[in-house]
Design goal:
With 409 residues, the chain is mainly beta. Helix content is 11%, strand content 33%. It folds into 2 domains: 184 residues, Jelly Rolls; 183 residues, Jelly Rolls (Sandwich).
């Protein structure tokens, strides 16, 4: 009798193994009422959607050490089952952390991966979607993809390459949600997932400069500008720029074919808290990723994560601003100081395919004292003015002391 009851419980718990059916509760939004709830869900046929809200108070740059406990009220987790066996765990956050500790597939990633931008445009209400394709898994927020992981490209640590391939081969039939009380979940058939969710939650994936009669082409240069003009690195991470989402806050430049690249004069800091950050966009204004440079590390979202070479650290200005040039010509990422190439990395495979679309850039989190050079192959957006739309003073530090501008390298 005991054996029969155990078998019956097992059959009821994992009935999807035999039927492949969707839990009826997921046919519409279902409230999560406890720290752990599970549902039958064949992930190859359905997309798991989660409707959540930003917490009232959150810190995008919390302290991480042994004595300080980080409040993870932003964290959500989904466990994946193939029959009775757990085959995967997905962990993600409702905000974008400055250090990029945003999303993590346990079987594929050795480290947390950064989102492409602040999810859902920073809106309070969000709709997340986990989609298992044949070759990869994607996480989107309000229909904007924030994370993608190919099953054939797990990180080369802890046997993750093989584990990630196994996840891609698994027939996921059940999910368990953790730490998501108060959120809602539902499943949408894979073939109709491209349809709009709820209008108030949709996010525009392209941006246009609009005039009285509708969209216009390239925005006009604001004021009397000349090429080789010294400009402040206007911070796009502001409400006015919709947190790096407005095309008016970007500079148009075909970096892949540019002979000039981006010439910047800025302070290079130690640690990850004060990185020089440049956001890359495609032609239509979709964020592709971020390049970040500091004395401790060099990062390119999804592709580069390495220590800064010692020769680059030695080449920085001992006091004040350092002049450096970033190039992506022919999909080779280079950093130069005084015309000398101090870092070089050829983008290959998925990285080359992804970043070949770079056509715009903006500066994220850099202050008014930092500068860049407006060059002949650039077009700047309406909000990229010499005063950054009045958020920076109309003079540089050099102007304050009555001296000429420092030349770019």
């Amino acid at each position: 009798m005991k054996t029969y009851m155990i078998a019956l419980i097992w059959l009821l718990t994992f009935r999807t193994v035999l039927t492949g059916n969707l839990d009826p509760a997921l046919s519409d939004w279902t409230l999560i009422t406890s720290r752990f709830m599970s549902f039958d869900l064949p992930m190859r046929k359905y997309v798991l959607q989660v409707k959540s809200s930003l917490p009232e108070d959150y810190d995008t740059n919390p302290v991480y050490n042994e004595t300080v406990r980080v409040d993870k009220s932003t964290t959500m987790m989904v466990e994946l089952y193939d029959g009775p066996t757990r085959v995967g765990r997905l962990t993600w956050n409702s905000i974008h952390y400055q250090r990029g500790y945003d999303v993590y597939t346990e079987e594929c990633n050795n480290f947390y991966v950064s989102y492409r931008n602040f999810p859902c445009g920073g809106r309070e209400q969000q709709i997340w979607a986990w989609k298992f394709n044949r070759d990869n898994v994607e996480l989107s927020c309000d229909d904007e993809v924030q994370y993608s992981q190919y099953f054939s490209r797990g990180d080369p640590f802890r046997n993750l390459r093989e584990k990630c391939r196994d996840l891609g081969r698994a027939q996921i039939s059940r999910v368990a949600v953790r730490f998501m009380e108060g959120a809602y979940v539902r499943a949408v058939p894979m073939e109709i997932v491209q349809e709009p969710t709820t209008m108030e939650f949709r996010v525009a994936t392209t941006f246009a400069t609009t005039g009285p009669t509708g969209p216009t082409s390239s925005p006009p240069l604001p004021g009397p500008l000349s090429f080789n003009q010294d400009f402040p690195t206007c911070n796009c991470w502001t409400p006015e720029c919709n947190y790096c989402s407005k095309i008016e806050c970007t500079v148009k430049q075909d970096l892949i074919n540019s002979n000039q690249g981006i010439s910047v004069r800025s302070t290079l800091h130690w640690g990850k808290k004060k990185l020089n950050s440049i956001v890359f966009y495609d032609e239509k204004g979709r964020i592709l990723g971020r390049f970040q440079l500091g004395l401790s590390g060099i990062y390119l979202t999804g592709c580069i994560r390495c220590q800064t070479p010692s020769k680059l650290r030695r080449a920085r200005a001992p006091i004040g601003l350092t002049s450096w040039v970033l190039s992506l010509r022919n999909l080779v990422l280079q950093i130069k100081i005084n015309e000398e190439v101090l870092f070089e990395r050829k983008l290959r495979g998925e990285c080359a395919y992804h970043y070949r679309a770079v056509r715009r850039f903006a500066f994220d989190g850099m202050n008014c004292e930092n500068r860049f050079l407006l060059q002949s192959d650039m077009e700047i957006g309406d909000m990229m003015t010499p005063t950054c739309s009045d958020s920076c003073p109309a003079f540089s530090l050099a102007d304050m002391f009555g001296v000429q501008r420092m030349p770019f390298s």
